[in-house]
Every structure is written in C-alpha cells, then in structure tokens.
C-alpha cells in the first residue's frame, strides 16, 4: 500500500503539479460523497418516506470509483486517473439528466466543473471538447424531454428550496472554488520555482562569465610569461655576437701569453691572465642569469645589477657608437624581488635606448641633454653625440630609475601604443615584445609603474618607480 502513494521518479514537475491537483480533487469528491451519503442516511432516519433522489447504492459506487481514481493518480498514471474522474462526473451528469432533467442546477454546476477539470488536468483542447460535448448533451436531453422520449421528474421545480438543497449547491460551488484555488496556487508555486530557477540560472551565468574572464586573464598572463621567457632568449641572441667578441678578446690574450712564454715563465704569466679569466667568468655568469627563467624573490644590490646589464650591452653600444652612462645619486641600495626579472627590465630599457640611435648618425643638439650628466672624467671622450643615460635615486620610499637617450624620439601619435604587445617601430629586428614585457614585469612582480616622455628628434625618457618594501 505504501508504494501506491509514492510518485514515480521519472515524472516531471508539471505532471507532479497536475497529480497533486487531481489527487486533491478525488479526495474532495470522496469527502463530498461521504457527506452526501451521511445527509441521505440522516434524512431517511428522520423521514423514512422522503424521496432521496439518488439511491444509496449509486453514491457508494461513486465513492469507491473516486477512491480508485485517487489511488491510480498517486501511482503517477495521470491520464488514466483524469479520465476515470471525468467519466465519474459525467456519469453523475447523465444519471441526473435522465431522472431530473439536464437543467437541474446540480447538473449545470457539475458540467462546469467537468470543463474546468478537463482544461487544467489534460489540456485546453480537452476542455474545449468537454464544453462542446456537454452543450450537445444539454440540447439532446432538452429535445428528448420535449418530445417525451424520456420523462424526467421535474417536481424539484415546484418543491420548496430546503436546507438540503442549500448544502448540496453550496458544496458544489465551494468544490469548484476549491479546485480553481488549488489550480492557481499550484501555478503560482510553479511560477515561483521558475523565477527562482531563472534567478539561479542568471547567477550561474554571471558567475560563469566571471570565471571565463578570470580563466581568460589567467591564460593571457601565462601566455605573456611564456612570451617574455622567449623574448629573453631572442634578446640574448641579438646581443650574443658582441658578447662572444668580449669573451674572445681575453681568450686571445690568454693564448698569446701562453705561446710567448716558456714553461718556467708560465707561473708568472698566470697572475697576469687571472683578470682576463675572471672577466670571462663574469660575462658567462651575467649571460646565464639573463636567459635564466626564474621569478624567485631574493635580496640583491640594485647598482650591481645595473652594472651587469651595462657590461652585457657594452659591445652592442660600441657597435652603435653609443655611450652608456650610469648616474647614481644615492648610496648603493638593496631591493627584494626577482633579481633576474629586474635585470630583464634594465636590459630592455638600455637596449631600447641604444636602438633609438639607429636611424641617426649624429646628434648636434646635445647641450640640454648633457646638462643632466655628471662632468666627464679625463679618460672619457667629451664630444660624445650618442648617449644613453641611466639614473637612479630614492624618492618617497621608492627607487626611481630613468633611462634617457638623445636618439630619434617617438612620434606623439604612436607613443600611446608602445606598451602594447607586438607593437613595434623597428622594422628590421623589432618584435614588439620588449616594452610590453617590461611593463608587465614591473606591474606584476614589483608593483611599480613605468611612464614615457619623448620629443621627436630630441630623445626619449623612460621612468620607472618601484616600491622599496
């Protein structure tokens, strides 16, 4: 018996709603029939000769059929339960029409209930079909009664309206109102569930858009990191020819010294060769550090890193006839962060400054630019025309780094695009990654900023600010 009152798992929400309505309907019909049976029994006990209109056996039969319909509906057989209930009600209409006429108020109210049930429990077409069928039923029984083919008992039209009639009609009206309320309440619940589902779906959609954006940003960051790593290798390849020249010079010095000295003089010569060997070692270490992919944070000396970058780019600068100058207004400072990536920043900015002189042979207007430099020593050439200056100072707990060149400058209309990936003004050897990579590293790993000022034909200044803590 327990299984008879459990819904099937494969029933959808709309079917469950209709099953709930039909179950309540069948239960209400059963209760109504039981009340009607009680009224008839009470009436017979007080007035044994009273005409009860409907035999007790018929009411008992209808009650049993209603209970069966309830059980079938609870099993999930909605259509079968609906048809049984409709045939049950139509049977009552047919019985009443034959015995008391089709215009009996009880029959008319029940007909309305049948149309309402058909439309709600089955579909709108079933409701329309029921309305047409019951209209034909009324016309048919009117003609049958008019031509005396059937002879209904119309005494109810002359009998006084009593309490039992009131209870009967009121029960039917309440039953119709109850069924309508039940249907509307189920629809409202379904609508609320739909709205809640729609809100959840919108929430999931918004979350999905956020997650997709976050994932896209993450993929873009990973791609930028990979591009930056590849760019370090590309940039190293560009400066490698000059680097190999710097390595070959001390190696040649070592070879010549070893050839011109006898074995007994080698020991004395080795002391002279040690600086050349150390220079090779430093160049190799600096090169290895530049191409190494490592964002591990450590504490390191800013001045030493800048000197190392200048040393690596010295050959490129000499080839381009550019003088690299480092001006440090503060005592040597240490910074905590990815040492390799800081070296990458300085290398990119200095290399950019050197490339800025590629399109011009001389720069006659250097007076204002030279005013920013310290006075040259006696060993320096005072008539330098191509210069890249790197200046550092501590300002408001930030390390301020300026890389200034007196090269060709940048056009005002394109200066806003220079930090975009793959945007380049270097037609021959530019790939448009250097400045984009530099900005990405400064912002992501050092929480700093980079800005640029330039005048066409007068030079460019890149300014970097990195927090000291």
Task: Give the structure's gist in a few sentences.
The protein has 469 residues and is an alpha+beta fold.
How do the strands line up in the largest sheet? Answer: 2-4-5-7-6
Structural class: alpha+beta
Radius of gyration, taken over Cα atoms and rounded to an integer in Å: 49 Å
- SSE arrangement, N to C: HHHHHHHEHEEHHEEHEE
Mean pLDDT figure = 76
Q: CATH class of the largest domain, please?
A: Alpha Beta
Strand content: 5-15%
In whole angstroms, the N-to-C terminal distance is 76 Å
CATH architecture of the largest domain: 2-Layer Sandwich
The helix count comes to: 11
Find the CATH superfamily of the largest domain.
Histidine kinase-like ATPase, C-terminal domain
Shape: rod-shaped
Describe the protein's topology.
Layout: H1 13-46, H2 56-74, H3 78-100, H4 105-122, H5 124-146, H6 163-260, H7 263-291, E1 297-301, H8 302-319, E2 323-328, E3 334-338, H9 339-355, H10 367-370, E4 387-395, E5 398-405, H11 434-445, E6 449-455, E7 459-467
Parallel strand pairs: 2-4
Antiparallel strand pairs: 1-3, 4-5, 5-7, 6-7
């Amino acid at each position: 018996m327990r299984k008879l009152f459990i819904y099937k798992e494969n029933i959808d929400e709309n079917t469950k709603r209709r099953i709930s309505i039909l179950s309540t309907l069948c239960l209400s019909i059963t209760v109504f029939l039981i009340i009607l049976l009680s009224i008839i029994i009470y009436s017979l006990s007080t007035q044994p000769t009273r005409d009860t209109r409907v035999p007790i056996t018929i009411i008992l039969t209808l009650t049993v059929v209603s209970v069966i319909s309830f059980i079938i509906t609870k099993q999930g057989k909605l259509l079968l339960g609906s048809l049984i209930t409709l045939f049950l009600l139509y049977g009552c209409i047919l019985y009443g029409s034959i015995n008391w006429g089709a215009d009996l108020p009880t029959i008319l109210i029940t007909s309305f209930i049948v149309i309402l049930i058909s439309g709600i429990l089955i579909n709108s077409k079933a409701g329309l079909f029921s309305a047409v069928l019951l209209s034909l039923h009324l016309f048919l029984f009117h003609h049958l009664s008019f031509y005396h083919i059937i002879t209904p008992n119309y005494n109810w039209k002359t009998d006084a309206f009593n309490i039992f009639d009131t209870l009967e009609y009121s029960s039917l009206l309440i039953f119709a109102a109850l069924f309508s309320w039940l249907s509307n309440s189920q629809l409202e619940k379904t609508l609320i569930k739909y709205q809640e589902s729609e809100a959840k779906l919108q929430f999931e959609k918004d979350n999905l858009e956020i997650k997709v954006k976050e994932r896209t940003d993450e993929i873009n960051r990973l791609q930028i990191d990979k591009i930056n790593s590849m760019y370090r290798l590309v940039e190293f390849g560009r400066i490698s020819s000059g680097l190999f020249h710097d390595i070959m010079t001390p190696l040649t010095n070592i070879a010549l010294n070893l050839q011109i000295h006898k074995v007994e003089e080698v020991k004395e010569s080795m002391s002279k060769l040690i600086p050349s060997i150390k220079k090779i070692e430093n160049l190799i270490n600096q090169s290895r550090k530049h191409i190494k992919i490592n964002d591990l944070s450590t504490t390191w000396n800013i001045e030493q890193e800048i000197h190392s970058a200048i040393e690596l780019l010295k050959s490129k600068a000499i080839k381009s006839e550019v003088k690299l100058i480092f001006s440090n207004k503060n005592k040597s400072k240490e910074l905590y962060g990815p040492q390799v990536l800081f070296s990458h920043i300085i290398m990119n900015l200095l290399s950019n400054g050197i490339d800025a002189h590629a399109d011009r042979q001389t720069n006659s207007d250097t007076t204002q630019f030279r005013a920013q430099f310290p006075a040259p020593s006696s060993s320096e050439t005072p008539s330098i025309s191509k210069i890249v200056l790197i200046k550092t100072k501590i300002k408001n707990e930030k390390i301020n780094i300026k890389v200034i060149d007196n090269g060709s400058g940048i056009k005002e209309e394109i200066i806003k695009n220079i930090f975009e990936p793959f945007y380049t003004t270097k037609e021959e050897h530019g790939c448009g990654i250097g400045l984009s990579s530099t900005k990405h590293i400064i912002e992501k790993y050092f929480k700093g900023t980079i800005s640029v000022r330039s005048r066409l034909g007068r030079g460019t200044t890149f300014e970097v600010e990195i927090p000291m803590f």
